[in-house]
């Protein structure tokens, strides 16, 4: 039998700089830090968005792994955000898309924009400081 009552609990991001990544999500999206457990051998910062039940779990990167900082290497051609519509990313929706887009530009964040074919939903793709793909979509206007 398939699981019932499924909902998204959290998204986790591994990072070598917890505070830098937390600040990024707090400043751009309004996430707030919430109490997080002590894991002993690694640090975490848990964030929650105040208008939803969406949580981000930022987890200290294991320094003994030789994995790249994020899914995309900073020197890779895939680091161009125009590849994200078909690549790994998470998507958040905002009701103030145009002003959010200006904030990204003011912060010097490289973006790739497009709209769905019907033109009702605008999309912007970009990377967080660790190279994780993000999409922000406008909420559909009726």
Mean pLDDT, to the nearest integer, reads 83
Structural class: alpha/beta
Question: Shape from CA axes?
Answer: globular
How many β-strands, per DSSP?
8
CATH topology grouping of the largest domain: 2,3-Dihydroxybiphenyl 1,2-Dioxygenase, domain 1
Low-confidence stretches: 72-77
Question: Helix count?
Answer: 2
CATH superfamily of the largest domain: 2,3-Dihydroxybiphenyl 1,2-Dioxygenase, domain 1
**Biggest β-sheet: count, sense, barrel?**
4 strands, mixed
Please indicate the percent range of residues in DSSP E strands (runs of 2 or more). Answer: 25-35%
Overall CATH class of the largest domain? Alpha Beta
Radius of gyration: 16 Å
Distance between the termini: 38 Å
| CATH architecture field of the largest domain | Roll
Q: What is the string of helix and strand elements?
A: EHEEEEHEEE
Tell me roughly what share of residues is in helical segments.
Answer: 10-25%
Number of domains: 2
Topology (elements, then pairings):
Elements: E1 10-15, H1 18-29, E2 32-34, E3 44-48, E4 55-60, E5 90-94, H2 97-106, E6 112-115, E7 122-127, E8 133-138
